[in-house]
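User: Okay, second chain of the day. Same drill as before: sequence in, structure tokens out.
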Amino acid sequence: MLLLDTHVWVWALEGEVRRIGRRARALLSKAESSDGVRVSPVSLFELTALHVLGRLRLAHSPDAWIRHALQASGVRIAELSTSAALDAGSIPRSALPDPLDRLLVATARQLDATFLTRDERILAYAASNAHLRVHDAAR
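Assistant: Same drill. Structure tokens below.
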């Protein structure tokens, strides 16, 4: 199973495949074929907030974009469980300052999923943490 970071989800759906590496595209394709691609509710929040701030331009409202993205891609929404929330709270702020990143990482761990991201802080955190599988979306 793959959990997509928000930016990877947007890139995949907006056709920005040049930003996603060949191996990452292969992992994504394999996961799609087995109904194994997830996004966190945190990504829905982040996508909407970035759009409202003008940092992310979408062709449609966030609600319409998300609805279309979920129908067109076969991506499913992961549960944000109590245990993921507690796990996220235990990740040191010094390791991952962004609380949304901590929630995404914890969700990947709870799902036992590989987290597909290009976020350098998350990649560095995973390199020092055996309890998180990540794949650099640039590769």
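The radius of gyration is 14 Å.

User: Thanks, on to the next one.
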